[in-house]
Amino acid sequence: MKLEEIAHQSADAARAGVAHLDPPGVRAPRNRGRMAALVGVALLVLVGSGVWVLGRDGGGSDTGEEVAAGQVGALRLELTDIPEGFVRGLAIDGQKSDDESPLPRFFYFGDASSDDPYAEQDLLIVLTPGGVDLLATDGDAILVRGSEGRSGEGLGFPGTGLVWVEPGGEEVTVGLFSKNLDTEGLLPIAEGLSIQGATAKLESGSDLDLLTTSERAPLVSYGSWIFYTDAEANLGLSLSSGAAEVDGSFLALLWWDSDAVPVQINGRTGLLGRLDPNEAEGPDTPAVLLWSPAAGQMASLAAFGDWSLDADLVALAESARAVDDATWRTYLASEPPS
Amino acid sequence: MRVMSMDPTAEPQTAEQAGGPLVQPAEALTFEGWYRSEFHQVVSLIHVVSGSRWAAEELAQDAFAEAHKRWGTVSAYDDPGAWVRKVAVNRARSWGRRKGAEARAYAKHAGRTRALPAQLPPSADEFWRLVRSLPERQCQIAALHYHDDRPVDEIAEILGISPGTVKTQLHRARASLAKQLAVDAEETS
């Protein structure tokens, strides 16, 4: 059989696989639904949160007494104190991604002497090898280091971005992002940047301190989720858990990208806030609580609606308990409420 | 007369603006009709590029929502379908880094549907898995070529690269796929 035949048969199969779908009504680009953004935000920060907690204060007790002993990567949680009117919905085991595409490398710059190192001056540099570009459909065309690039907001990370493909023996796409600097402020930094392989260095004399780097993105789909909704599916809770198998990629990004505050969950430090302004805005912005229930584990609880951040969500999180395999299998097999 | 452009920031130009007579399209393109005619193909395309049917539907809807928001401009393009594919493929590109789309799809599933996505037959699943294992640009080009039957110049326009690059990368993608599938990489276009 020829390659073209296999390809066309595979294309036919792919099209047939979605032929039954009824095109849904087109939604508004933002704030399309509470449940919709809820878990998106929770997952966005899930993995890094665990690392953040562990990195900031050692993660509290490492005995894991609050949860039943679960193998790393297999911890699954459920709420034992479900709010009145809510029902348990879908349970899902995420699958580890087999995506082998080049991963970006992140460099975070700020003021190392400040308690809030990104408050006054901040810079995120993202290097993506192989010429895999970050160019979005939005942005203004701009010449950077002799190459065509894009500048503006909405280029993949918060704040103002400046993105271009750096030519050379091995192409690399470079993205500079800042919440304090505009394009005019980013351009001279870009022009003075030294890029060698997977390393980026600022021009000597820069006021910015290199705070941390990370070499890979977190695998946010690797974990388990359980959802709770009210009768109208307008209020929702998402509880996710999994292993903290990352190197801190989102540690700095989470800090940079949020106004979360530390809280205590059964004696262990967590982060609580309304996160990811890119995903949701206004009063419906989801509340997200992230914590490490045991060493090497992370969990997040996200909620929409009229939640009291300091009481309801923390109390709910403290009611989270590990689920044994047999029970979890029954959850996985359960159909979600229609 | 409409001018071929997929720059989302560009305003549509009429022949009158270009100095010629104004010619109204014989039949106005409605968003609803266009959306319904393109939806399945775009979801399927993003499925094979991303590997996730969950994310494909979500990412495609995001792209169509953008098209809806800019419909006055997008509808003036010769090929609005190319524009929405460009947006969807770009979003699928960053999906690996931020899998919020898949999470949103999970959440929506939890709230309102019982039907799980259908799985592809093993042979098709294997083929598209191999496509996704290619370097990202080759993956996108192969998907647009094999799935969407797009010619080289349209793929170049969608991905914002030169036709020559498309040809080169498509040739490499074919060779790689043929080798892994142990089949003949005869090129038909």
Topology:
The complex is a heterodimer of chains A (about 350) and B (about 190).
Chain A: H1 3-18, H2 34-57, E1 77-79, E2 86-93, E3 105-110, E4 123-129, E5 140-144, E6 147-153, E7 160-166, E8 172-178, H3 183-191, E9 194-196, E10 199-201, E11 209-214, E12 224-230, E13 236-243, H4 249-256, E14 261-265, E15 268-274, E16 287-291, E17 297-303, H5 309-318, E18 320-322, H6 325-333
Antiparallel strand pairs in A: 1-18, 2-12, 3-4, 3-11, 4-8, 5-6, 6-7, 7-8, 9-10, 12-13, 13-17, 14-15, 15-16, 16-17
Helix pairs in contact in A: 2-4
Chain B: H1 31-50, H2 53-69, H3 71-74, H4 80-95, H5 100-112, H6 122-133, H7 136-147, H8 152-159, H9 163-181
Describe the structure in your own words:
The complex is a heterodimer of chains A (338) and B (189). With 338 residues, chain A is an alpha+beta fold. Chain A is built from six helices and 18 strands. In chain A, the strands form four sheets. Chain A has a seven-stranded antiparallel beta sheet. Chain A has a seven-stranded antiparallel beta sheet with strand order 5-6-7-8-4-3-11, sandwiched between helices. A two-stranded antiparallel sheet of chain A has the order 1-18. In chain A, helix 2 (34-57) packs across helix 4 (249-256). Chain A is extended and about 60 Å long. Residues 27-73, 133-137, 216-221, 245-252 and 276-284 of chain A have low confidence and may be disordered. With 189 residues, chain B is mainly alpha-helical. Chain B has helices spanning 31-50, 53-69, 71-74, 80-95, 100-112, 122-133, 136-147, 152-159, 163-181. The longest helix of chain B has 20 residues, at 31-50. The two termini of chain B are 30 Å apart. The model of chain B is unreliable at 1-26 and 96-117 (pLDDT under 50). The interface between A and B is large, with 71 and 75 residues.
